[in-house]
Amino acid sequence: MPDATKPVTVAFVLASYAPDAPAGMERATAALARGLRQLGHRALIITAIEPDSTEDEVDEDLVVLGSVGVTFPASDDELREAISTHGQDKIIAADLRALYRRHHVDIAVYVDALWGLGRLAPACDGVRTVLAMHVVGHDQDLVPALERTDLVIVPSTTVLGHAHDRDYDSTCWQIVPNALLGNHSAPDASQREALRRSGPVRVLARLGPEKNVRALLDAGRLVDRGVEVVLAEAGFEHAAGAQAAEYRRCAHSAAYLFRGSVRDDGLPWDQVQPWLANAAVVIVPSTKETFGLVALEAMSVGTPVVAFDVDNLPTLIGTGEGAGGIVVPRAHGEFGLWGAAEVLLDDPVRYAALSRAAYYRSRDYLPTTVAHDFLKAVR
């Protein structure tokens, strides 16, 4: 176990990691790594994706694991086959050990049982093994991952509940929430009021069916306010071509909006908070959300959030005094999300109160705060 009084080197393993990737696991990993560095520790991120050769600066703490051998985006089955056939798992394990020795790694964090290669986690002298379970994965990946880990961390009680429902013993798992990657300033009160009166409703999501964007757009055809949606493909998908098909469906639905636009080019990470800051309200239409990073990012710049009462969203946003948005019963459907947003935007007093509360709720998720939580859990 690392000495609590000295700096440590933490290696995060996530095959699909790439800077600006439009996915919560990647952004949360980058945020925790940033927090650890701000505390004086070293944080490596080990990925299977070659960095963009056009980048001017080389990130010495981004390490490519070339032995994974899969083309991205990839499905679960494609990655699972690539790393488990013809002895490739042993080659990858050996490469990881070599990286840990070369960089004097103290803690190896496998960010998911499959995509974080937790199912392969090799034993290495002096290296503490941590499985960061953002979602409860497939049994065929999770069972071997749990056998190989010293500690499991999860971002919310939602994941603990999902694991319990699947008959996994989660009593010793530790909660380490996701962190904010950026710290963009929130609009002042006068700017926020101007946004309430005439700013757009914005939606930011990865192209996945559980993000539920198409249904939201179908229900919003009569909304008389600007609606702006940004979608993007992640490095992983449920099946080959699934993300492209999802975008085509969303774009078709958006064509019927009175005043709306949908684009599929995503946003660089440093533009996420500024874009959300300039929304009147952010709708998170997800039907599954084990943490809710987009909701947190919107709240961090004082933009109220409207979301369903699913998974971790009620805990994150709040449901009573001090809430940072409105939580809508799932039974009310997507029309309920639009209705809640409309009522909120027509109420300047409540809107201002939610905006202030949203910002202050987000302060618990600064990178250094979460990094402290992480180190307390793993040491």
TrEMBL record:
Glycosyltransferase found in the keyword field: yes
MF term (GO), any: glycosyltransferase activity
Keywords, sorted A to Z: Glycosyltransferase, Transferase
GO biological process, alphabetically ordered: carbohydrate derivative biosynthetic process
Glycosyltransferase subfamily 4-like N-terminal domain span: 24-179
InterPro entries in the record: Glyco_trans_4-like_N (IPR028098), Glycosyltransferase_grp1 (IPR050194)
Pfam family, one: Glyco_trans_1_4
Protein name per the record: Glycosyltransferase
